[in-house]
Amino acid sequence: MEEIQAGLRGVLRLFYFVLVIGTYLTWSFCCHLVIRDEDKRRARFSKNASFFCGVILKLFNMRLTVVNKPKDGEKFLLVSNHMGFIDILLMCSIFPMLFITSNEMRETPFLGLLTEMAGCMYVERRSRTKILEEMKSMIHALQKGFRIVLYPEATSHNGEEVLPFKRTLMMAASHAGVPIQPAVVNFRKVNGEEWTMKYRDHLCWYGDISFATSLWKALTLKSLDAEIEFLEQIHTTPEDDRGLIADRAYKLISEKFVPVKGRTEQGQPPAEMETT
Prior knowledge:
The chain has ten helices and eight strands.
């Protein structure tokens, strides 16, 4: 009976999800046609994405608690742990932001369109030459007042531990003259229960799990209680050791991260997938 109820719930939510996404894409495309200035268009895209992510959270019965929310108008480069598209929805619903994602994501059917209409910025992490050029684009966006979200793990993980941080793109903050704002995402309750291995694959999109499979599992959940805590800001200069800066951000986030209960001793390192 429980599986039948979950299936029916998934079908109903899938219908609503398609309806919301269709509305989001239609409205964003209209903005694309009307707004000619690239910066104004990107700002409008990020506001649209924030609004519709909030709508999706309500449809999915996902409740978010935000701790130490930054003041309105405060600018920064936000870095956070990353477990899949659920934490993107949660983060995006707080306030408009631009997300850094990979060129591979941009080339992925459907997901590429979703990210482009959200104003995402794309990077090619496999090329040092290109990534340095793309960091300049991040610096310019930060200087223009955009809040940018960077997932320095460069992939999503399975909820067992925060992966080591990549360093290069985090230095965009110092060159733009804004602080690094660490934040930690934690899942507190799933279907009213503790977050255990039973629900791990309902919330984490990692390894070779397809997006369709991950989405369906998330749709079948009754509820989710999550928390995003904004931690102590890190102020840097271009002369600072980027390794030390990355280690400090990692320490702040990993110490506050609550892993899935029942995890294996050494954890299961996720395969490389979409970098966001």
